[in-house]
Amino acid sequence: MGLKWVSADFVYLLVGLILIAVEICNGGITSSFVRNDDLSLDMPVDSDVFRVPPGYNAPQQVHITQGAYEGNGVIVSWITPDEPGSNTVLYWAEDSELKNSADGIVVTYKYFNYTSGYIHHSSIKNLEFDTKYYYEVGIGNTTRQFWFITPPKAGPDVPYTFGLIGDLGQTFDSNGTLTHYELNPAKGQTLLFVGDLSYADDYPFHDNNRWDTWGRFIERNAAYQPWIWTAGNHEIDFDPEIGESEPFKPYTHRFFVPYRESESTSPLWYSIKRASAYIIVMSSYSAYGKYTPQYKWFIKELPKVNRTETPWLVVLMHSPLYNSYVHHYMEGETMRVMYEPWFVEYKVDIIFAGHVHAYERSERVSNVAYNVVNGLCTPIRDHSAPVYITIGDGGNLEGLATEMTEPQPSYSAYREASFGHGIFDIKNKDACLFQLASQSRWICCRS
Ligand SMILES: *C1O[C@H](CO)[C@@H](O)[C@H](O)[C@H]1NC(C)=O
Ligand SMILES: *[C@@H]1O[C@H](CO)[C@@H](O)[C@H](O)[C@H]1NC(C)=O
Ligand SMILES: *[C@@H]1O[C@H](CO)[C@@H](O)[C@H](O)[C@H]1NC(C)=O
Ligand SMILES: *[C@@H]1O[C@H](CO)[C@@H](O)[C@H](O)[C@H]1NC(C)=O
Ligand SMILES: [Fe+2]
What we know:
binds 2-acetamido-2-deoxy-beta-D-glucopyranose; binds fe (ii) ion; glycoprotein; EC 3.1.3.2; zinc
């Protein structure tokens, strides 16, 4: 690893049990660190990370996500290449001989001249909280076993550690990001993925074989801990010129989420509780104006959140609302205008986004006073406002965003062009820390 992973967000602001309490920065640090901005290539199709598991019709691309609003369910997904095989997942608690089974469904889709394998999704319900389970997919002599650990029941002082990755892709840098996440001693227990998964759409005709390679690449982590999915622009796969006019087709066939449990009508926006966090996932690329399904769902969602039970309110979306990089500048502006008043009124703690291939953290600011005629259009410090964190630096083939708007706006606390992941580590109801990439320093999430 060495130095190339080390970056320098040296803001400490620690609350509660943690000892250090120095705020060095007061707005506007631009790190001079740039992690190798040479374009990284996608790993070749015959790379070790894309290896097809042995055996006839062996399940591949195994991944799990949270399968129940309360956290006591898991959706297991996998693909069999040759024939449908079985939709059943066998599962058993670590200390139990009793094998249970959950049935699921199998779907397939076509995209231009590509035909998918058999994509299985099985939802396991009513699991015990805070328990290790083993599970098995496949039939005959090509079964495969994995495991996961359910979260503790939701509650105010339940510590939990989330990882964050966005814009991952499948380059050598992507592999570095995933490896580095796996090796982080902070040990993320669940990954919050802020959109842009495979970048298959960068290939001619959106070569969906690159969705399959990506599925095999992430299996080594995503089969053992839930990845919480957010859709990005690279999931839209809208290309009417080649006859593909159903947005999000590959994504919604491959990645199931428990959206109905939060009364959502679309897998592109939903929410879950996990430990002491309430996580709301939004879709930057679905209609979100007033009266739209996403809007109507969202405004009912916020009052539902019981901050005594889940004190940490977190929102995931792909396109950032505050972004001072040149790349994708102001793309999140219409969504900011629509939703920022809600985020401030309901005191959302953190909004994580990706899209910009770099890291940026905002101060706690809001910009909600403007009414067209009053000229009040500059962000101001606001303790009810969220911190905005952009972590779209997973390592995809499009490369880093290095160009920043100058001067650095005062709402921008820290920005740095580096690949990597984040760790969002909840200690208790008052204290939580965020760590960028592998640096050993942490910042406080609430102040
Ligand atoms: C089991 O796998 C082996 C090796 O791939 C194969 O030769 C054999 O036919 C398989 N048996 C069954 C029952 O599928
Ligand atoms: C799909 O079309 C592309 C471009 O014509 C071609 O290179 C590829 O081999 C085709 N794939 C299949 C499965 O027919
Ligand atoms: C990806 O990373 C893993 C773990 O560090 C390593 O074993 C593997 O060889 C890497 N693959 C490629 C293609 O870089
Ligand atoms: C909120 O959660 C707390 C702690 O779990 C619980 O005691 C309380 O009844 C809940 N409030 C509502 C309105 O459901
Ligand atoms: Fe993006």
